[in-house]
Amino acid sequence: MCGRYTLHTRDRIELKWRASELGRGSTIDVEPRYNIAPTQEVVVIADFGRGFEVRLISWGLIPSWSSDGKPFINARAETLEERPSFNESFRLRRCLIPASGFFEWRRSGKEKRPFYFQAQDEATLAFAGIWDTWSHQGKVIATCAIITTPANELVAELHNRMPAILPAEVQRAWLDRSTNRIDLLEMLKPFPASRMKKHPVGTRVNSTENDSPDLLIPVDVEVGQTLSLF
After folding, report:
1. For residue range 119-132, what is the model confidence (pLDDT) as tens digits?
2. Which one of 53, 95, 104, 144 is the catalytic residue?
């Protein structure tokens, strides 16, 4: 699964590919985030009806027909077409969710030790996502879920699932409504472990109340001491 991630670029979030085609609403100023959690607003890139835009919407997809407003944080790639909560959004409302990296935890007895995963070159990643809108008490709420795949070899040391990370060459096709389902599903493969790296971090990230750069500082997993500063 993916339950916590970061987006800490200090530049405006922008689609690098064909940015000139995005037009109005193509960029957005965001504060660096080091501990993004479900139900919070997150940056997404999608066609919301006026061409591609970058927006802040709520993390936790609520299908438009939902009666109870239960949010879905993740959507498994293998069942996107089978689950009523996801199948229409998969066909019609796909999005990219930019991320600098994500967290996963290793359980040791009663302790949960967090690790931080990112690209080898520390470039911004693009999670595959789906979105929908839900009407409640006269308000229309836009929501999204991160699609997950089986873990690659690096992430599998901690968890059997990971975010579906889309390489740059397929990001445009993922958002294109004319892309056929077979090609879309083919994109949802585990991201190569050789293009990622991980390191242990301190347990302060376990609390969603903490959101600061020091959450990413590597620590010694045995004693929990800081190893170095970025």
Report:
1. 999 999 999 999 99
2. 104
